Structure formats: structure tokens, C-alpha cells
């Protein structure tokens, strides 16, 4: 039943850890669908062209993802000593976060439910 001592199990788990620089934003106030429109535009691009796309994209999610990209680039530069000019976006995805439920009063005493959706956005960079 047991696979080994607890320290051995932790050592094995940490050996498989991803060392690529990344940044994660939890509970972003944008729906997954709207965030994915922007993420699809920058997936696989190098960092400089992705920053250009995000800067001039009119969607709200692009401003949020631009901050996240700048954070991931800073992590790569300071923590991993990577060259910023060689970086590209290896992975970027948005997962659903808990939804806030609100009530909208309607005619004849009815109440409609409003779902304010959130997302967890993750960016992973890598060197070419």
C-alpha cells in the first residue's frame, strides 16, 4: 500500500516539477470564453509580438492578460536568468473559477439570476 517514506514521496513529486517561468491570475473578473478569445490570439507567439497584440486589442481581457504576461516575463528574467528576446508563450489557458450569483428583480415579483463568471488564467513561457 505505501510507496515509501514521506520524504521520498515528496522528493519524487518535486523532481517532476515544471521549471518553466509562469504566472497565474486567480479569480479574474472575466469569463473563460472571453479570456480565451484573447489567449488564442497570442498562443505560440514571441513575447514582443504578444505584447503588441495585447496593447492594441480592444477587449477588457487583453489588459488583464498583458499585466500577467509582464509578470511572467519578469519571473523569467529575475528567477530563471532567461534572455527576454528568446522567450515565447508555450502555454496559455483559462479555467473556470467560482461564479458569483446575483439577483435581478423583474416584473410581477419574479427574480432572474445573474451569473458573474470568473476565471483562473495561466501563462507559461519558454525559450526558443
TrEMBL record:
Record note on quaternary structure: Part of the 50S ribosomal subunit.
Gene symbol of the encoding locus: rplV
One GO biological process term: translation
Keywords linked to the UniProt accession: Ribonucleoprotein, Ribosomal protein, RNA-binding, rRNA-binding
Originating species: Eubacterium ventriosum
Name of protein: Large ribosomal subunit protein uL22
Xref: PROSITE patterns: RIBOSOMAL_L22
Region entry Disordered, spans: 1-22
NCBIfam families per record: rplV_bact
Primary role: This protein binds specifically to 23S rRNA; its binding is stimulated by other ribosomal proteins, e.g., L4, L17, and L20. It is important during the early stages of 50S assembly. It makes multiple contacts with different domains of the 23S rRNA in the assembled 50S subunit and ribosome.
Composition bias type Basic and acidic residues, residue spans: 9-21
Family according to the record: Belongs to the universal ribosomal protein uL22 family.
Record-linked InterPro entries: Ribosomal_uL22, Ribosomal_uL22_bac/chlpt-type, Ribosomal_uL22_bac/org-type, Ribosomal_uL22_CS, Ribosomal_uL22_sf
A single GO cellular-component term on record: cytosolic large ribosomal subunit
An MF annotation (GO) of this entry: structural constituent of ribosome
Secretion signal span: none
